[in-house]
């Protein structure tokens, strides 16, 4: 059996279906989006070839697109902080807990298995102003003015609230990955540090966290990619609003293509998202030294 | 050799399962058929294949075996209830099958409809608003002249004038769409709260409306409930004044570039009205994140004093109205300007088109059957007003009988900005109106931005 799996032809046989599906659904889609981006097209009827005009308009004259790029960056940073660093913190705390660890681990993981739509519905109700949701009801115990605190309809904070909700959903996933990595750190390394006089904080800071650095980098890359392409939380919670206050590149692309019926323009936004995702990914790999072995 | 065979076998299983998983998926956004429909189309359902819509109606021999429809909504929405009732009865009589494809989300529905238009595979009957999409259907010659058909079977003169006005094609003046029903809109108010606030008469002008809001706010009540996250709810407040003063002229001319918000007094008035209502705290706190369904639940659950609603919500209002807790009033006048006499917005809902390419004798027969039985289906199945001017049957909630006189003779339809504006302009105005109501932009900025959208 092992001999068979070592053969290139057999490996190819297993890889081919995934490769085929990936090519069909990802590569072909990107190529098609690139093709449509050169047209003025409403999605129905005739397409008019306009060359690079969509890109010129997008980069030179579209203030909303520029603001969505900035929103996406802020959104990504918040998500990296919550999902990666929050996940790491929770994993460390979990690794220190002896009793009820499995229960806690399960509880933290629950949001990951709940669908995004359900999570958004739950938060819509929790953060509701009229009728007063649980969050405002509790806050009003400390300050009655907070009873009408607007979370998703306040343009100053709606982006942060949306990012928090996505961070909350996936925090448990990265916590589990970090926890698995942490318990994989050889005990003797930590014990040696403790014998040498290190505190538990130092044990984590100088021994365990550096040991799991590749996992941290991999998770950062996953969260970066996920957040740059994030759509559902902004769309379901705030519709990108109020106004464009929590508009991300992806929701803007959707609105342009399907609401404004500018398929060509929406496709050019899609291509820009692909370019930005690739650029951020490459820069991150360069900074972290990942992929050097390639 | 055995190992090779095992490995190949495993690879084949992996590939097959991946392919079968894809094939087994139901198309997203497509609702399952109801029980009656399931009976008629078990074969299609079990095969898991989605037939091309136009092929579905008639076989290659030319003999029709099935009627297909694409409708927006769920099994509990009016359009489905009416068509499911009529198709099941008609098809049972004729020995045909029928298939109703449902897509609930508006955007998903438009995407699906566009896909059918692009591939010229529209079903026999399809939900379609009057505007860009109906024009696209006309461009591929996929719309039966419903007006001509109604004249042929003698139902044209029975149809409400405002409904015909609402659905008439702006380019050639023909009627290509059949109404979903007759919907009238009005404000409902809580009689007990009005009494507490010392408001003796329902407001007839916007000044009186704002004065009433002030009094209601003074007694600690939320004056107006609005579903601000649904674009059309805030847009109504932008549209009321221009509609009462100019009919469809302002928005049509605005889209054509011959009128602007800054030049039109009624439009400016509406902008200031929305800004006032939003910034003076007359809407409920957090209104921008409340959708229409939640707004209905709030108002009919006892929160707020005034709510813009209509005949579509009679079922929700019925009990409170019968108990004397609710009253209604039409759209107030814009003071200082000439207002047209029609003050109740009337529209046809999400209309239906009939595919010209598949409109054979059977479909014509169904069309006649539909006209004959439409009113009955409206009142018994969907609980909505029929678009045909006929006496109301007995046994309906009192609100039907009390509101009907408001529109019985109306000839001017509501002008829906959604239909008149270019999609891109509409999307931008939707974003801007929310900013206006939340005081993120001032009325002057809103006017200047909206005027620039057309000059772009």
Q: Could you give the topology of this structure?
A:
The complex is a heterodimer of chains A (294) and B (456).
Chain A: H1 2-6, H2 8-36, E1 39-40, E2 48-49, H3 53-61, H4 63-96, H5 101-113, H6 116-126, H7 134-142, H8 158-183, H9 187-195, H10 200-211, H11 213-228, H12 232-237, H13 249-259, H14 263-288
Chain B: H1 2-24, H2 35-40, H3 42-47, H4 53-57, E1 66-72, H5 78-94, E2 97-103, H6 106-118, E3 125-127, H7 132-139, H8 146-153, H9 161-167, E4 183-190, H10 191-196, H11 206-218, E5 224-225, H12 231-246, H13 249-256, H14 265-279, H15 292-300, E6 306-310, H16 314-322, E7 326-329, E8 346-347, E9 352-354, H17 361-382, H18 398-407, H19 417-420, H20 423-437, H21 443-455
Parallel strand pairs in B: 1-2, 1-3, 5-6
Antiparallel strand pairs in B: 3-9, 4-6, 4-7, 4-8
The CATH topology of the largest domain in chain B comes to: D-Maltodextrin-Binding Protein, domain 2
Strand order of the largest sheet of chain A: 1-2
Largest interface: A-B, 38 and 43 residues
Per DSSP, what share of the residues of chain B sits in E-state strands of 2 or more residues?
5-15%
CATH topology of chain A: MetI-like fold
If you compute it from the alpha carbons, what radius of gyration of chain B comes out, rounded to the nearest whole angstrom? 25 Å
The CATH superfamily name of chain A is MetI-like
CATH architecture of chain A: Orthogonal Bundle
Residue stretches of chain B low in confidence (pLDDT < 50, at least 5 long) are 14-56
Note the total helix count of chain A: 14
Q: What's the quaternary structure here?
A: heterodimer
Key terms:
heterodimer; A: 294 residues; mainly alpha; MetI-like fold; globular; B: 456 residues; alpha/beta; D-Maltodextrin-Binding Protein, domain 2; 2 domains; five-stranded mixed beta sheet; four-stranded mixed beta sheet; 21 helices; 9 strands; 9% strand
């Amino acid at each position: 059996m092992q001999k068979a799996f070592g053969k290139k032809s057999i490996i190819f046989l297993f890889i081919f279906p995934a490769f085929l599906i990936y090519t069909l659904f990802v590569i072909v889609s990107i190529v098609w989006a690139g093709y449509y981006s050169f047209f003025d097209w409403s999605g129905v009827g005739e397409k008019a070839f306009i060359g690079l005009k969509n890109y010129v308009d997008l980069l030179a004259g579209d203030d909303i697109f520029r603001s969505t790029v900035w929103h996406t960056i802020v959104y990504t940073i918040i998500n990296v902080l919550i999902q990666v660093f929050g996940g790491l913190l929770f994993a460390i705390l979990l690794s220190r807990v002896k009793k009820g660890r499995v229960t806690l681990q399960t509880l933290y993981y629950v949001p990951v298995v709940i669908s995004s739509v359900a999570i958004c519905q739950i938060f819509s109700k929790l953060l509701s102003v009229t009728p007063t949701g649980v969050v405002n009801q509790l806050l009003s115990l400390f300050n009655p003015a907070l009873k009408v605190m607007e979370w998703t309809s306040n343009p100053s904070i709606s982006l942060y609230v949306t990012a928090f909700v996505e961070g909350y959903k996936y925090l448990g996933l990265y916590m589990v990955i970090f926890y698995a990595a942490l318990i994989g750190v050889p005990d003797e390394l930590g014990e040696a540090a403790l014998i040498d006089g290190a505190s538990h904080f130092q044990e984590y800071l100088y021994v365990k966290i550096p040991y799991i650095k590749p996992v941290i980098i991999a998770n950062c890359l996953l969260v970066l990619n996920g957040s740059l392409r994030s759509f559902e939380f902004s769309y379901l919670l705030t519709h990108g609003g109020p106004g464009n206050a929590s508009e991300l590149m992806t929701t803007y692309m959707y609105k342009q293509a399907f609401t404004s019926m500018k398929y060509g323009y929406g496709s050019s936004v899609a291509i820009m998202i692909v370019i930005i995702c690739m650029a951020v990914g490459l820069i991150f790999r360069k900074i972290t030294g990942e992929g050097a072995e390639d | 050799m055995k190992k090779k065979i095992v490995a190949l076998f495993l690879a084949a299983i992996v590939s097959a399962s991946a392919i079968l998983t894809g094939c087994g998926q139901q198309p997203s956004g497509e609702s399952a058929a109801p029980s009656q429909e399931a009976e008629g189309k078990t074969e299609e359902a079990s095969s898991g294949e989605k037939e091309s819509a136009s092929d579905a109606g008639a076989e290659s021999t030319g003999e029709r075996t099935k009627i297909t429809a694409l409708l927006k909504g769920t099994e509990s929405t009016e359009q489905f209830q009416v068509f499911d009732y009529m198709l099941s009865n008609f098809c049972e009589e004729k020995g045909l099958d029928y298939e109703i494809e449902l897509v609930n989300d508006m955007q998903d529905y438009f995407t699906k409809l566009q896909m059918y238009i692009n591939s010229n595979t529209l079903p026999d009957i399809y939900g379609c608003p009057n505007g860009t999409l109906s024009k696209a259907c006309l461009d591929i010659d996929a719309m039966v002249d419903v007006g001509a058909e109604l004249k042929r079977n003698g139902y044209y003169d029975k149809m409400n004038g405002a409904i015909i006005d609402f659905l008439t094609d702006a380019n050639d003046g023909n009627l290509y769409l059949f109404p979903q029903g007759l919907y009238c809109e009005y404000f409902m108010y809580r009689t007990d709260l009005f009494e507490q606030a010392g408001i003796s008469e329902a407001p007839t002008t916007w000044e009186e409306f704002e004065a009433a809001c002030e009094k209601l706010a003074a007694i600690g009540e939320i004056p107006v409930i609005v579903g601000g996250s649904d674009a059309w709810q805030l847009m109504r407040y932008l549209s009321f004044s221009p509609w009462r003063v100019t009919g469809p002229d302002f928005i049509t001319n605005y889209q054509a570039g011959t009128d602007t918000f800054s030049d039109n007094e009624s439009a400016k008035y509406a902008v200031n009205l929305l800004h006032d209502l939003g910034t003076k705290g007359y809407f409920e706190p957090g209104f921008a994140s409340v959708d229409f369904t939640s707004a209905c639940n709030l108002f009919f659950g006892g929160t707020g004093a005034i709510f813009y609603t209509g005949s579509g919500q009679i079922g929700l209002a019925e009990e409170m109205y019968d108990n004397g807790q609710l009253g209604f009033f039409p759209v107030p006048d814009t003071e200082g300007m000439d207002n047209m006499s029609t003050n109740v917005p009337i529209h046809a809902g999400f209309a239906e088109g009939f595919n010209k390419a598949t409109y054979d004798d059977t479909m014509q027969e169904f069309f006649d059957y539909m006209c004959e039985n439409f009113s009955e289906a409206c009142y018994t199945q969907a609980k909505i007003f029929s678009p045909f001017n006929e006496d109301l049957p007995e046994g309906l909630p009192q609100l039907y009988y009390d509101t009907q006189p408001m529109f019985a003779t109306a000839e001017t339809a509501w002008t829906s900005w959604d239909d008149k504006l270019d999609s891109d302009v509409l999307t931008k105005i939707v974003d801007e109106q929310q900013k206006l109501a939340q005081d993120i932009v001032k009325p002057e900025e809103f006017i200047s931005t909206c005027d620039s959208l057309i000059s772009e």
